[in-house]
Each structure stands twice: as structure tokens, then as C-alpha cells.
Amino acid sequence: MNEQTYISRPSRQSGVTMVELLIAMVIGIFLVGGVLQIFSSARQTYRVHDATSRMQEGGRMALEVLSRDIRMADYWGCASNSIQMVNNLDPTGTGYTDFVTGGIVGTDGGGMAPDSITLRGGVNAGIAIEPPYGPQASAVIKVNVGNGLAEGDIVMVSDCTNGDVFQISNSNPDGSGNLVHNTGNGAPGNYNATNPGCPGGGNAHCLSKVYGGDAKILLTREIIYNISTGSEGEPALFRNGAEFVDGIENLQILYGEDIDGSGTPNYFVPEGQVANMDAVISIRIAIVTRSYDDFLTDGIAQNYNVLGTNVVAPDQRLRQVYTSTIAVRNRL
Fold it and tell me: What integer pLDDT is reported at residue 7 of this predicted model?
């Protein structure tokens, strides 16, 4: 029997070589770089889309509300304009509003600095004057009970020939149906010693006339729009001193003046070039919205146009311009 001899051989080592490891590392770096590039691109796309959505939402809201208020400006009941109004508020009192200087007052910021606009007028409250009427211009005005009015409300009584603005000075006008307009009660209070209803200043809280059943009580309003810094440190549109829509960087306004009585604006000009603000029948506004985030334009300064003026952005934020031309209905 032959004896078999077995010779043991060393087993081969398993694993990767240094070259293979280096190649794998290079491939991994390329893969990670690609993933990071995709992530960065997706993140930038999301930032742009999110900023655009925010700007669209803010711009549309600001445009809608501002347009609505402009359309309803300069309403004085069936009186044609504020020239027929007598303001009986105390001009020295806190919160005095000059309702008779016109329903539309603007300020021009100059260049591309933000403009502002003030809109005044009445709001039909459906409150009619009831008998007894008078008998003198200083008498209490009678209206229906449950009228929703309160002490301190500034209202307007108006028929088709005249109108008077005054502050309700008595408590509980809603329950009593009485509208008293005494002097020195509330802010600004009533005081008009030159009112034609009481010649010689004998009674400083007179109205200009005794109003009858053809007159109505309207609520008064003054709405001021301007641009200022909001609570988040970003520019915002303010309405009567309260932050209304943030992210609004600019408000530019042109006034359409009808100088020939055709019912169509002859031209649109800034506030400083308006010859007669009472002849303005249309207003063109441009609202510029701005993104919160910077570095969204890939290093290229954005160019945009505001009412015919080309503007170059000072940074890399996104901006959108919303423009509309609004007819002042109560002047047509």
C-alpha cells in the first residue's frame, strides 16, 4: 500500500488592493458630490418657489384691498363731493380729521422712494333721519333705535345738497335713537364757531342746517396707506398705522386727472404734478414685493420696471411688481 503524501500550501490572501481602494474612494467622492449638487439645487429651487409664493400671496392681497378702498373713496352720500361738507370736529382736538379737503390726498416720496395715499369718505350705514326734525340746527338728531352707533363715533349727516361731520357726544345712541353733538365731549370733540347754522357763533355745536327725512347718517372713515418697517424688520404695507402685509417694499402711485370733463383721464402723473386733486378719477398703483431671503438670483442683480421706470435691485433678493389702474367710482 502506497503511502500518500500531502503537501500543505499557504492559502491566498483575500481583500482589495490599495489601487482598488483608491478607485472606490474616487467613485464615492463623485457620487457624494453628485448627491450634494442635487440637494443644493433642489434646496435653491425650493427657496425660490417658496419666496415666489409668499410674494404672490402678499402682492395679491395688498392689491385687492387697496384697490377696493380706492374705488370706494370720496363717497359723501348723495352729496356730490366733500366741498358740500361742513366739518364740525374740533380742529384742536386729538384725532381730528380734515374731511373737507378732499376724499383723496397723496404724498410723493420722490424718485423711487415709497409714496403714500389717504382715502376719505363715508360708509352707508342705512340709518335714516326720523321726525321730529330740528327745530334748530343745534337740536338732537333722531334716528331709529338699534342703529349700532356708540358714543364717540364720528359720523356724517348728508342729504343731496349739504352734509355735516360731527362726533356723537351722548351715551347709548343705539338704545335711545338720539344723536347729540355737543362740544367738548370726547376726542376730538365738536367745535365750529363759524358754522352757518348758528350765525355769529352763538352755538359752537350747531350743524349747517336742519336736516329732514331725505337725509341719512353715514359712518366716516379715513384710510392711510404707507410703507414702513414691519415687526420682522422687513418692509411692509401699513394701513392706518397697523402692519397690513409684510414683504411689500414699495408703493408707487400715479393719478389720472380728467381736465376736460370727458370721464376719461387725460394723463397719469405723480402727486406733485396733479393740477386739481378733485379732478382725479382714476389711480394707477404699483406694489413691489420682496423676498425675505437674499442670494436667490444666482449672483445676478434683478431688473424690474415700476410704472415705466427701470430699477436695478441692490441685492440678490427676488422682487415682483403688481400694477393696477382703479377707477374712483364716486367721481365718475
Answer: 56
